[in-house]
Amino acid sequence: MRNIIECFFIAVLPAFAVSGCIRDDVYWMHGDDDPGYTVFSESYVWQVNNFFRCVEMCDFFTEYQKIRQDREASEKLAGEYFGDAWTDLYYEKMAVAETGTLYNEGEGYFLFRPYEIPDWRDTTFRMEAVSVGEGSFRITCTSQSFNADALMRVEGSTVYMDSFSSSYAEPVSSSVMKVRTDASSGVVSLPRCASDGFSYVPESGELAVEISGDGVDDTFRVMFDGDRIGIIRKGRQTEYYDAPSPLYAYNINYR
Fold first, then answer.
1. Which PROSITE patterns does the record cross-reference, listed alphabetically (predicted)?
2. Which residues of 177-193 are buried (b: 16+ CB within 10 A; e: fewer)?
């Protein structure tokens, strides 16, 4: 990814002329009247979605360990969680199409390699999950540009993001994007994946976003409201936009 923050904040220029943007960049957009939300939306897959997918896979793998010697029951359970999207299932790892691969590193400890990360050239990227109680996991991410810490839990058919904080420092500029849960606005949650597919965007809660850098300064809250997203800025009326959508959805079904 190249200059995602600076690209979308040079909003006064036509999209094809924005300095630093290139057409083969997977985060290319053709302009938007809210560059702050555009930056959040285009980074959503690794900024937020990866954490929900990781905890769902951890929850499954924990249950799978109880029945793993029964292959038929194990595959049935995988189908109940992931439908036809799961591709590998072994004692030491599992994979879900266009989502990632989860490795069992020991009792209650997992390594997750997501399908999409901020910069595929970053060999230091590492995402780990540790069980901290039944259905609860602490997920951390470390890399050259993106670092995050989340406390997630699965209860029945719902996944909760009890706490989350992240910092993305754009490698080729001075821009920084920070995202955290807003405890005053309820817990961020979404329906757990099941045989009918995956939920891409939470159905409740808010995240606070702060974007800063050379000539860039924006602070707002992202309110999850079904198929739309509310952007809340101090002293301004709430503005609504379409929710982020997955870039790749060829072998996986999103509700």
1. PROKAR_LIPOPROTEIN (PS51257)
2. bebbbbeebebbbbbbb
